[in-house]
Amino acid sequence: MRKDIDEFEDLPPEDKERLEQSGMILSSENRCGTFFQADQDVQHTSCTYEGIEMLPTAEALKKYDWLKDYYWNLVDKDKDEYTRYVAEQEPRGYTIIAKKGSKNIFPLQTCLFMASDDIQTVHNIIIAEEGAELHMITGCVSSHSVGHGSHYGITEFYVGKDALISTTMIHTWGEDVTVVPRSAAKLEENATFLSNYISMKPVKRVQMYPEARLTGENSVARFSSVILAPEGSDLDLGQRAILEAKGTSAELLSRVITRGGNVITRAHIIGAAEDTRGHIECKGLILEDGIIHAIPEIEGRLTNTELSHEAAVGKIARDEIEYLMARGLNEEEATATIIRGFLDVKIQGLPESLQRQIDAAIDAAEDGF
Amino acid sequence: MLNIENLHVEVGGKEVIHGVNLQIPEGETHILMGPNGSGKTTLLRSIMGFSNYTITEGRVIFRGHDVTELPLYERARYGMGMMFQRPPTIPGLKLGKLLDVMSGHSPAKVYEYAERMNMSSFLDRDLNANFSGGEIKRSEVLQLMVQQPDFVMLDEPESGVDLENISLIGKAIVQLVDKDRHIIDRKKSGLIITHTGFIMDYLEADVGHMLCNGEIRCHGNPREILKVIQERGYQECIECAKI
Which of A317, A322, A343 sits opposite B50 (nearest CB)? Predict the structure, then answer.
């Protein structure tokens, strides 16, 4: 399965490289579909797997009247100035519908690309119907030539009964780009939602607090973030899971490294139903003076919920570095090896190809350790 | 191989090793004994070059070169290796990944040694995380097999190891220090800290040293030294001051 995406081919080599760093496969090999939006222009939408329909959201809203019930349903249009701004625009972004029982072996790739100094808006709706399994990877990239710019993105995930959505988002923004995603997910019975976020490149500011509502019994949500904050980067990141139904569980995990940047890692689990479990793990390494502010919150609302958190912020222990030096690694190699281990997050339920993509994005940043 | 001259070592501003002299020729394996707190681990760690161990006087000559000022990793690259008694846990760093880096990305070699040490199923585990006493020792020996140092220091390789593993570890150490080779072909050397003398069930150690209060009190036949300790305790050595 190989189909060259002409719109990718037209990009300058520096930008192609940036797309690849964000997990995009330009040839679309081993991808079951590709979406590409440059600035406010949806340039390419294709999906070869018949169990999945992907189309630009504007088109989807015209095609399916019922979709309006999903549009601005999980994210409040009046939440803040950014949501209001997006609501005022023509809808951009993509809508994905994974049909009942479908399963994509090769992930879908969606690419949101900022080619000029402007504001990009998207509104994505992702629906996995009963028993469907949908894997997707999103590359959020600004052109090497972009100076200032802003990206406001709304994403609403609907994970149906017995369905699974895994979404892996890799950011490759620029030093003067502001990014404000507003995402939410709703999970029905036995549903699984895996959300992975990787940001290893400089960015001016990211502010987000995606929320998963676990409304169906025994549904599971897992958020994982891997962040490297160079000097000048300012990231305010949160993850919230609301355990509303019996037997639901959530795990919120973040690994953060600062090289002079500022990161707030918020996490919040609300245990609001019987037999619920939740765990938060925030770990931070300060390699150069910067701020890592971990704010894990666990909120139990009844007796039969079990919530826990662990948070640690500090530097690499000297004895760990010297242990590896005794094996012949010099100090830089030992430090990089320990950091690479620190960032090594294995996500249960993720296809191997996507795990490799995550590993590659982190490996590529190794010089920045 | 190793020549230590009048070594004085401070830890946290306090002198712990007071003028130790020690020679270990190529092909020889020596045993280091002594009561708890006598400075055995400190001696090994200062030979290796750890940062908290400050050499205030004396020299460490390794393979004819003064390495007293060399950083830790250069000593390792020069052929020194060490088995840690309590190695740190490194979350996320897989044992297999470390061995891959150490071996210069030679997975076949790593796998072969891992099989031999019964550690294949640990390659995907975080380094030393929730390893039992025996597993830590097997992991340490495995790392040394991959590293193949010319001079290996072992800090109580028997502690916390069950009977089944002790034989596996003992036999592996024999190979690490070339004791499985004919005496003429032995190129590697070792210095082994032991309380129980278990390692002498697997190899003939060449010389034993007794360290008390940061000073070497006795050099001699390791079996004889061990026998004296077992029968009369360390006090005999402390009072003896043969050297």
Answer: A322
Reported as a single tens digit per residue, the pLDDT across B42-98 is 999 999 999 999 999 999 999 999 999 999 999 999 999 999 989 999 989 999 999
Q: Residue A341 and residue B48: Cβ atoms within 8 Å? A: no
The 3-state DSSP class for residue B195 equals: coil
Range list of H helices, B162-203: 163-176
Question: Which residues neighbour B183 within 8 Å (Cβ) at sequence distance 6 or greater?
Answer: B27
Give yes or no for a contact between B210 and B35, defined as CB atoms under 8 angstroms apart: no
Q: Which of A322, A328, A337 sits opposite B147 (nearest CB)?
A: A328
Same domain for A46 and A15, yes or no, is yes
Q: Given an 8 Å threshold on Cβ–Cβ distance, is B73 in contact with A323?
A: no
Range of the domain at B218: 2-87+150-240
- Within this chain, do residues A150 and A292 fall inside the same structural domain, yes or no? no
- Please check whether residues A155 and A281 belong to one and the same domain: no
ipTM of the complex: 0.94
Domain boundary among A203, A234, A260: A203
Say yes or no: A151 and A233 in one domain. no
How many structural domains compose chain B? 1
- Condensed to tens digits (0 to 9), the pLDDT of residues B199-237 reads 888 888 899 999 999 999 888 899 988 888 888 888 777
Instruction: Measure in Å the smallest separation between the Cα of A281 and chain B Cα atoms.
Output: 13
Distance from CA of A327 to the nearest CA of B (A): 6
Question: How far away is chain B from the Cα of A324, in angstroms, using its nearest Cα?
Answer: 8
Whichever domain contains B218, its CATH number is 3.40.50.300
The strand order across the sheet containing B80-83 reads B80-83, B151-155, B189-193, B29-33, B207-212, B215-220
Same domain for A234 and A272?
Answer: yes
Q: Which residues of A touch B (CB under 8 A)?
A: 317-320, 322-331, 333-334, 337-338, 340-344
The residue segments making up the domain with residue A169 are 1-203
Nearest to B90 among A320, A330, A343 (CB): A320
Give the count of domains, chain A.
3
Residues A216 and A91 in one domain: no
- Any long-range contacts for B36-40 (C-beta under 8 Å, 24+ apart)? B38/B211, B38/B212, B38/B213, B38/B214, B39/B9, B39/B211, B39/B213, B39/B214, B40/B155, B40/B193, B40/B211
B78 → chain A, closest CA residue: A328
Q: What amino acid is encoded at A91 in this protein?
A: P
Residue in A with minimal Cα distance to B47: A326
The two structure tokens encoding residue B99: 């061995």
If asked whether residues A147 and A225 sit together in one domain, one would say no
Residues A48 and A184 in one domain: yes
Interchain contact, B73 vs A337, CB within 8 Å: no
pTM: 0.85
